[in-house]
Amino acid sequence: MNKYELAVVVSANIEEEERTAVVDKCKALIERFGGAITEVDDWGKKRLAYEVRKMKEAFYYFIRFDAESTVPAEIESRVRIMDNVVRYLVVRQDEA
Fold first, then answer.
1. What is the pTM of this model?
2. How far apart are CA 39 and CA 42, in angstroms?
3. Contact yes or no for 57/46 (Cβ under 8 A)
């Protein structure tokens, strides 16, 4: 099992319960493909480096998880089509 981190940038134009639902859906995807979530880090609302879809701010979430090497591609393919996800990225964390 490898350690990964999923960074999700969620639209600031939606209600809090919708935002929570998006994050829960991401967590469910990780668990569905056999990943084990170790930590969820909520950074809150931050200013974007550049305007995306006419938005200047968005909410940042970082989900750390352990999974097999095939899981990140599965997660990315499903997060890509999720509504209200502005940007996403799955990266492998180095063993320290």
1. 0.92
2. 10
3. yes
